[in-house]
Design a protein that fits this description.
Blueprint: H1 3-9, H2 15-40, E1 45-47, E2 49-51, E3 55-58, E4 60-75, E5 81-85, E6 93-94, E7 99-103, H3 106-141, H4 147-179, E8 182-184, E9 189-194, E10 201-202, E11 209-224, E12 236-240, E13 249-257, E14 267-274, E15 287-293, E16 301-304, E17 306-308, E18 313-315, E19 318-324, E20 330-340, E21 345-350, E22 357-359, E23 372-374
Parallel strand pairs: 1-23
Antiparallel strand pairs: 2-22, 3-16, 4-11, 4-15, 5-7, 5-10, 6-9, 7-8, 9-11, 11-14, 12-13, 12-15, 13-14, 17-21, 18-19, 19-20, 20-21
């Protein structure tokens, strides 16, 4: 008799019958659940991707610079004396030839009066001696004057001329010194530095005022000796002054390269003229970030990782990009960006490397951990 007949021939009662009946049903339930998950699961999100690869581009150099006026003049004096007048304060506009500082110079003016009197006396004496000299010379030519008379008159004439010249030179010296008593501005500009006040004692060579022409601006920066060969007059630069307008690129042109570097720092001073747009208000002394593309290309090219800028995902101040991992999932990778190129690409300084698979599909459903598949 078979096992099934044995089961049929026996009578079971109570919970045993329920357990035997429940086991096959439970098995069928697990099977049904497993089959349903396989058949109804969410398929991977179809995306397009691009492989990141570094490509050669012209090398970029970056420097810290300072905004300055094109011309800056520091005013001092040769005199020592009390400042009697200094009517201009920082920020005042001044014109070339306008008196900025007056220093008490009563002694110089008295000396000038003495010199003027001496000049008049010397001029009158020279005129009288010249007349006598001409008369004696005519007499000597006609043998009517002796050699001694001629020699004495020649000496008197030479002494008179020398005295007149000496007085003239003394007058020039006093006039030159008086220029430092009433000091005029050498340029049209703005007072950007005031180091003394009325009543202070001015000393020779000590700065009193600084005047700067701010109508045309420049950026001064230093370049190390290892990179100076990449800089040339006429080269283009891009300047960013965050204090005035963050992120705005101001074009500029290198107009001066100092051919002699500082022997201590091994740095070379470079100046670039800039043309800020009217809405960007720059002031001398502002910090500037200067970007310069290496001149010459070729051996100066560097391999750069760059992707289309529209692939960036911005979250506040952070930039990221979605990549497809080896497990087929989307992952938001934070990156640090650099230069923006004319072809619409942006340099990736860190966060991506050769071979990374960047997701190029624009889809709001893409998020960290979402399964993605590459559409062909």
């Amino acid at each position: 008799m078979s096992f099934l007949n044995t089961i049929r021939s026996r009578r079971f009662s109570g919970p045993g019958i329920a357990i035997i009946a429940f086991l096959p049903a439970l098995s069928l339930l697990f099977t049904a659940c497993g089959n349903g998950d396989d058949q109804g699961g969410t398929p991977p999100l179809a995306v397009t991707t691009m492989r990141v690869a570094a490509a050669p581009r012209a090398r970029e150099f970056r420097y810290a610079g300072t905004v300055e006026g094109r011309t800056r003049v520091t005013i001092s004096t040769k005199l020592m004396g009390e400042i009697s007048s200094i009517p201009f304060d920082v920020g005042a506009r001044v014109s070339a030839g306008q008196v900025l500082i007056s220093i008490r110079s009563g002694d110089l003016k008295a000396k000038k009066a003495q010199v003027e009197a001496g000049r008049a006396e010397a001029a009158a004496a020279l005129a009288n001696i010249t007349s006598n000299y001409d008369r004696i010379r005519e007499l000597y030519a006609r043998k009517s004057a002796t050699q001694k008379e001629m020699d004495d008159m020649q000496m008197a004439y030479d002494v008179a001329r020398a005295k007149s010249k000496s007085v003239e030179e003394m007058a020039k010296e006093i006039d030159d010194m008086l220029k430092y008593a009433d000091i005029a501005s050498p340029i049209d500009g703005t007072v950007v530095g005031k180091y003394v006040e009325e009543g202070d004692l001015a000393s020779p060579g000590v700065p009193l005022l600084a005047v700067e022409d701010t109508r045309e601006l420049r950026v001064n920066f230093s370049v190390p000796e290892s990179e100076i060969a990449a800089v040339s007059t006429g080269g283009a630069v891009e300047v960013v002054v965050d204090a005035a307008d963050p992120g705005t690129i101001i074009p500029g042109t290198v107009d001066r390269v100092n051919p002699s570097g500082d022997p201590g720092s091994r740095q070379y001073r470079v100046q670039a003229a800039i043309q800020p747009p009217p809405r960007v208000r720059l002031h001398p002394g502002m910090y500037a970030s200067v970007s310069l593309i290496a001149a010459g290309g070729g051996s100066r090219d560097v391999n750069v990782v760059a992707i289309p800028e529209d692939l960036l995902v911005r979250r506040g101040d952070l930039d990221g990009v979605f990549i497809r991992t080896g497990d087929g999932e989307a992952l938001l990778r934070w990156v640090r960006t650099g230069r923006r190129f004319e072809d619409g690409r942006v340099e990736i300084l860190s966060g991506l490397g050769d071979g990374d698979e960047v997701i190029t599909t624009s889809d709001r459903r893409i998020a960290d951990g979402v399964r993605v598949g590459v559409s062909r």
